[in-house]
Amino acid sequence: MPPVPFDLHAATPATRIGLGLAALGRPAYITLGRESDLPADRTVEAMETRSHEVLDAAYAHGVRYFDVARSYGRSEEFLAEWLRSRSRSDDVVIGSKWGYTYTGEWRTDAKVHEVKDHSRATFERQLAETRRLLGSRLDLYQVHSVTPGSPVLTDRALQDELAGLAAEGVTIGLSTSGPEQAAAIRSALSVEVEGIPLFSSVQATYNLLEPSAGPALAEAHDAGRTVIVKEALANGRLAQEAAHSPLGHLARETGTTTDALALAAVLHQPWAGIVLSGAATTGQLNDNISASGAHLTPGDVEALSSMAETATAYWQHRATLPWT
Asked: Is residue 12 assigned to a domain?
């Protein structure tokens, strides 16, 4: 298996926190509260400026993993320009994803914002697009939103192409989504090319409302894969719905923000290697970073675990979130 490009023992407070640009690389996304988070005029220039502000803040705090995707609008472009203009050193680790094509045409009211396709043709096209922007700075390339029926789990020719990229020094990973994340993760763990495991990292949705992938992620960690957690704040739901929840009660009791506590609950999991912040402002980023110092007692963890929904209910609700 190729080495995983994450130093999980680096001596910075934010070692285990990464920054994802899903909410900053395009004008519309499903995160709640965007109206107050982002500039009213979401031009490319305004969104790039905001992206660079948040990237600067994250780097200053010690964040060293940055996550983009072909479908995140211009996220790769924004990140590439930030890397170039700031002359960032090799301590920055860059992960991107292929498998969705951005179709929103920089509109908040687009009928379809992204289209999924895990074919070899899409991989080849999007890898070339990613390399034009990130070049040799690409450390991790992930298949975007793998489900149990995704071709990447069975298409030997596609797997061979991914293995070829791994042989060039790029770590291969996958992200998952949907109510069957655990099944997709376990299937991915068994994929080998010439006796070598293909996927060295797994990125999955895990939060207080949707913890169903937890056991499979623990298995991935025990099998030597790096685990990256996305949507730890449930696309803003945990903050929006906190008032009468155990999370809101604990936040009031401890004087800690709901976002920091929700992230801390994920960081509490021993298998969680990197937990992504999806901050859209420097204030949110600062708050998210504070999660690394939050303390949860066993009683706190038990109380927060009572918030879990069924995976089916969670993903049905997520599908109704508007793009704003």
From this structure: no
In the structure encoding, which two tokens stand for residue 186, read together? 């376990």
According to the model, what pLDDT value does residue 1 have? 42
Distance CA 172, CA 182 (A): 19
d(CA 270, CA 273): 8
88: pLDDT confidence band, cut at 50, 70 and 90?
A: low
Best CA proximity match to 149, nearest among 172, 118, 108, 194: 118
Instruction: Please report, for the domain that includes residue 63, its CATH number.
Output: 3.20.20.100
Structure confidence at residue 171 (pLDDT): 98
For residue 144, what are the contacts with CB-CB under 8 A and spacing of at least 6? 69, 70, 71, 97, 98, 99, 100, 116, 175
- pLDDT above 90 covers a percentage of the chain that reads 92
pTM: 0.96
Say whether pLDDT at 8 is over 90: no
In a domain, 40, yes or no: yes
Helices and strands (DSSP H and E) totals, the chain = 13, 12
Q: How many CB atoms lie within 10 A of CB 37?
A: 17
Give mean pLDDT, residues 222-232.
98
Count of domains observed in the chain: 1
Tokens standing for residue 184: 């997709």
Q: Which of 53, 133, 141, 58 minimizes the C-alpha distance to 92?
A: 58
With CA atoms as reference, report the closest residue to 1 among 181, 217, 163, 124.
163
| Token representation of residue 7 | 């130093």
The residue range of the domain holding 100 is 17-318
The reported pLDDT for the residue numbered 86 is 84
Instruction: Tell me which DSSP letter residue 171 carries.
Output: E
Does 9 reside within a domain?
no
Mean pLDDT of the chain: 94
Say if 11 falls within a structural domain.
no
- Segment 207-231 mean pLDDT: 98
What is the C-alpha to C-alpha distance for residues 88 and 90, in angstroms, rounded to an integer? 7
